[in-house]
Amino acid sequence: MDLYNVMRSTFAVREFTGDPLPDHVLVRILDNARFAPSGGNRQGNRVIAVRDHQTRESLIECTIPGTKRYIAQLRNGESPWNPLQPTAVDEETIAAVEVPTASPLRGADVVLVVCVDLGVVAAFDQHLDRVGLIAGASVYPFVWNILLAARNEGYGGVLTTAAVAQEPRVRELLAIPDHYAVAALLPLGKPTRQLTKLSRRPVSEIATKERFDGEPLRA
């Protein structure tokens, strides 16, 4: 496919047909995705391809606490898990939330658990008084390349992170070393439908000239 078409039609796929995603296609997806940049070209990414249903059910269990809080905060009019806006929802209310039983981690043909070696990332923002972001530059381009490559092959997936709230459980389940962080869980498979037109804000609303408060960037 044309690169721009792939970029404009790669959406969050959460429902799958059940058709197989064979290992040889998965290897081709990762073989192309691995050319994503990383800090110092250290390439600290690791992927665990999980097909076992019992293991996936355990991963789904790891997503539940974070999802409960997410839903409770939404119902309370909050921005879920936002570091600038602490939640006003109490733990009892969060615990009482019913989580939908459907999960893309269950319906996908394979779930990729993407990790990054914290020993090779450069976290330039580690001393700033805010949540850290910069270390993700060494792993999330790779994650997005996987989704773009999957779209090019006629498959799809979604970047999920709810399980990371229970990272120690995920690490124990999959024997992930302590110095690796879990960056994303990517359920992949054949989508039940393929969107061809996505809704996004125009460039003039997200880009400005010279300063944050500068003139909108237009063609």
List the helices and strands and how they pair.
Blueprint: H1 3-9, H2 23-33, E1 45-50, H3 53-75, H4 91-95, H5 104-107, E2 110-117, H6 140-152, E3 156-157, H7 167-174, E4 180-189, H8 203-206
Antiparallel strand pairs: 1-2, 2-4, 3-4
Helix pairs in contact: 2-6, 3-7
Describe this structure in words.
This protein is α+β, with helices and mostly antiparallel strands and 219 residues long. It has a single domain, classed as NADH Oxidase (3-Layer(aba) Sandwich). The chain has eight helices and four strands. It has helices at 3-9, 23-33, 53-75, 91-95, 104-107, 140-152, 167-174, 203-206, and strands at 45-50, 110-117, 156-157, 180-189. The longest helix is centred in the N-terminal third of the chain and has 23 residues, at 53-75. It starts with a helix and ends in a 13-residue tail after the last helix.
Outline of the structure:
This protein has helices at 3-9, 23-33, 53-75, 91-95, 104-107, 140-152, 167-174, 203-206; strands at residues 45-50, 110-117, 156-157, 180-189. It has 219 residues and is of the alpha+beta class. Keywords: Oxidoreductase.
Strand order of the largest sheet: 1-2-4-3
Helix content: 25-40%
Q: How would you classify the quaternary structure?
A: single chain
Task: Measure the end-to-end span.
Answer: 26 Å
Q: Supply the CATH architecture.
A: 3-Layer(aba) Sandwich
Query: Percent of residues in beta strands?
Result: 5-15%
Average residue-wise pLDDT: 96
Q: Give the tally of structural domains.
A: 1
How many strands appear in the DSSP assignment?
4
Decide which structural class fits the backbone.
alpha+beta
Main sheet record: 4 strands, antiparallel
Q: Could you tell me the radius of gyration in angstroms?
A: 19 Å
CATH topology: NADH Oxidase
By DSSP (H or I, 4+ residues per run), the number of helices equals 8
Order of helices and strands: HHEHHHEHEHEH
- CATH homologous superfamily name? NADH Oxidase
Shape: globular
The CATH class turns out to be: Alpha Beta
The unreliable regions are: none
